[in-house]
Write a structure and sequence with these properties.
The chain is α/β, with parallel strands linked by helices. The strands form five sheets. Strands 9-10-11-12-16-18-19 form a seven-stranded parallel sheet. A five-stranded parallel sheet has the order 2-3-4-1-5, sandwiched between helices. A three-stranded antiparallel sheet has the order 6-8-7. A hairpin with a 2-residue loop joins strand 14 and strand 15. Helix 18 crosses helix 19. The termini are far apart. One of its GO terms (molecular function) is ADP binding.
Length: 660
């Protein structure tokens, strides 16, 4: 796992040396002897260090000194990223063409300014080169040996495996009787009063999969259907808005400024005298039902609410007889595992006998937990279909007996990812639990942050779709919507247990920090930061009087806010991505807009936000390099004239249609 960060930085460094950084070095580097040489040495030494990391990974879990060495490697990799990004920002600032007289004036100082930036870049590379040599020299003391070049045994998923089946959902195997039972309670029960049906079981047992299958089977029996993913981060206002969205046509939605009472009143008016089905998926506390049950009308017309939860007491708060979903038996476990291990095998074909026997051993270890079987089966699909390869994997997994083996299998699947996919997988940690992720926005984020290498054929979008398909094939993400024409993924989410793994990995590497409380603050500044501030309790943990840099640092590359945006008063030279969801946004603090501080911003997103005066400020023209602007579910009708002239802007998403 250690090579993910180094590989990401190495690729980013190489990409930078092919772009504007290379142009600057070629044009002016001859004036500063050694800058080019230092860049080449750093690039070469990064490759050498990366070759030791596979051996380091195998020891890092048990040897503290190796973990310390990896920490030093990661630190110097981040120093390289800082140097490249700072130099890139300097070049961007120097190369930007001011209008008229100011551009002519700027040309007079361009060369001295560029030479100064090159001088600083060269000094930083020289210092980094010294650190890299010290780290390489210390590897023997730390017990890290160069076993191979890091490429042997590295798996790359064959392209033919990326052609997915039509069904991206977890297969419903062994759930047939459970499905019929739930359907019977929903539509065959003669009770006309509103009633609740609940499904209970541990994480990964398939509650959401069963609920989705049941929903698709019975939805035509109800006039209104609502699906709500509740999760541990329960927020009443957010759920009310989601209900309102599903009940109202797009053009009639106007819930951003509605108080709670008005939202409830409009929801009840839309549901009145209609037979409805509401799915409350992944409920964690009894309080969820206590607050929501008053919203749903009781019209004695056979309306139903279906709840899924990990906790019996939560289910019993709404349903006296919750349905406890059982674990899969051995036969169904083996069938699910083999279906995932051989996704393209014809149903009439038999499986190799030795692998079928080994599959029974794997299934027994998984204890009948469907998610674990799916993840393990998908991992097996990346191995050679022979006994030796499967048995080798069997021996490599730490099969413990205290319930942690599920996480261990998922961690093994993560370790088997190519380095570029590890960075992409960790990026999912920025989103709240059970969040449905827009693929277009995600791909722009990946592209801007350098998660997608520039080399190779195809567009960035095509490469990113390939990455998403590969993660889906490995069951690391769940596809919730595909384009019916192209087959491209349009929406996806990450299972709770896999999201926990992503958060842990990203945090351990100081790659991404997710903030819920002030206790999430760290001594090391965040490189990518996400603030989940849906509840008043979460919001009160962060002071309005403090600048965002006091929490995330000044060198953060991306900022995401869910539920509330924190003050941005300082100049943030390296910030490239800003995403704000579900809150009100004020742009001006006195005469100036804080957007003026974000000179390197490439990706700007306001989703389901109420923007000050329902407009974007003219100061958005300061974002010279803005490529992606997303205004989904805001009231913005038109853009300021200044931003329309921005040649860098490639895509504007979801402007509201003018009524005139």
């Amino acid at each position: 796992m250690a090579d993910a960060v180094v590989d990401f930085v190495k690729q980013k460094f190489e990409d930078a040396l092919k772009g504007p950084v290379k142009d600057a070095l070629l044009k002016e580097g001859q004036f500063l002897y050694g800058v080019n040489d230092n860049a080449e040495v750093v690039q070469r030494e990064l490759g050498r260090i990366k070759s030791f990391l596979k051996d380091a990974d195998s020891k890092s879990s048990s040897e503290e000194r190796v973990r310390n060495w990896i920490k030093e490697v990661r630190s110097v990799a981040y120093s390289i990223e800082d140097a490249v990004d700072n130099f890139q920002a300097d070049i961007d600032s120097i190369n930007y063409k001011e209008p008229g007289f100011f551009n002519a004036l700027k040309k007079l100082v361009k060369k001295p300014t560029l030479l100064w930036a090159l001088h600083n870049f060269g000094n930083e590379l020289e210092a980094i080169q010294t650190r890299i040599k010290e780290i390489s020299k210390a590897k023997t003391d730390f017990g890290v040996n160069n076993l191979d070049d890091g490429s042997s045994g590295k798996f790359r998923l064959p392209m033919e495996r990326l052609i997915l089946t039509n069904n991206d959902e977890m297969e419903v195997i062994g759930f047939e009787s459970d499905k019929e039972h739930i359907i019977g309670r929903l539509i065959h029960d003669e009770n006309s009063r509103r009633s609740v049906v609940s499904i209970v079981g541990p994480g990964g047992i398939g509650k959401t999969t069963l609920a989705r299958t049941v929903y698709n089977s019975v939805k035509d029996s109800f006039e209104i259907r609502i699906w709500l993913s509740v999760s541990q981060e329960f927020n009443l206002i957010y759920l009310l808005k989601k209900m309102h969205e599903q009940l109202q046509p797009v053009k009639q939605r106007d819930h951003h400024e509605l108080p709670e009472e008005n939202l409830i009143r409009e929801i009840q008016a839309s549901m009145k005298d209609k037979k409805y089905l509401v799915i409350l998926d992944d409920v964690w506390t009894e309080d969820v039902w206590y607050q929501l049950k008053m919203v749903y009308p009781e019209d004695k017309n056979g309306s139903r609410v279906l709840i899924t939860s990990r906790f019996v007491n939560v289910a019993k708060a709404a349903d006296p007889k919750p349905y406890e979903l059982p674990y899969l038996n051995e036969e169904h476990s083996v069938q699910l595992l083999l279906n995932k291990a051989f996704p393209f095998k014809d149903s009439n074909e038999s499986y190799p006998k030795d692998l079928s026997e080994l599959a029974k051993e794997f299934a027994k270890k998984c204890g009948g937990l469907p998610l674990q079987l799916v993840v393990l089966g998908s991992l097996l699909s990346t191995k050679s279909p022979d006994f030796q390869a499967w048995n080798r994997l069997m021996r490599s997994i730490d099969w413990v007996t205290d319930g942690k083996h599920c996480v261990d299998i998922m961690a093994t699947s993560y370790e088997q990812l190519p380095p570029h996919l590890k960075s992409c997988f960790m990026s999912f940690s920025v989103f709240p639990e059970d969040y449905e992720i827009n693929a277009q926005s995600l791909i722009s984020y990946w592209s801007v942050e350098g998660f997608i290498p520039q080399e190779g054929r195809g567009t960035m979008y095509d490469k990113a779709q390939g990455y998403l398909d590969e993660l889906a094939q490995r069951c690391m993400i769940q596809v919730t919507e595909r384009n019916t024409t192209t087959g491209n993924i349009e929406r996806c989410r990450v299972h709770t247990l896999l999201r926990i793994l992503a958060v842990q990995e990203a945090r351990e590497k100081n790659f991404i920090t997710v903030f819920w409380t002030q206790e999430d603050n760290r001594k090391e500044a965040a490189r990518h930061a996400s603030f989940h501030l849906y509840t008043p309790e979460m919001q009160n943990n962060f002071s309005e009087n403090k600048d965002i840099t006091e929490y995330a640092g000044s060198n953060v590359r991306s900022l995401m806010f869910f539920g509330k945006i924190l003050p941005i008063r300082s100049r943030m030279k390296l910030l490239k991505v800003l995403v704000v969801y579900h809150t009100s946004v004020t742009f001006y603090d006195g005469k100036h807009s804080w957007l003026e501080n974000l000179i390197s911003l490439r990706h700007l997103e306001f989703r389901e936000c109420t923007l000050q005066n329902d407009t974007l400020p003219e100061s958005i023209n300061c974002l010279h390099y803005l490529e992606y602007l997303d205004l989904t579910d805001t009231k913005i009708v038109d853009l300021p004239k200044s931003i329309k002239c921005n040649e860098a802007l490639k895509l504007v998403v979801n402007l509201v249609e003018s009524s005139s």
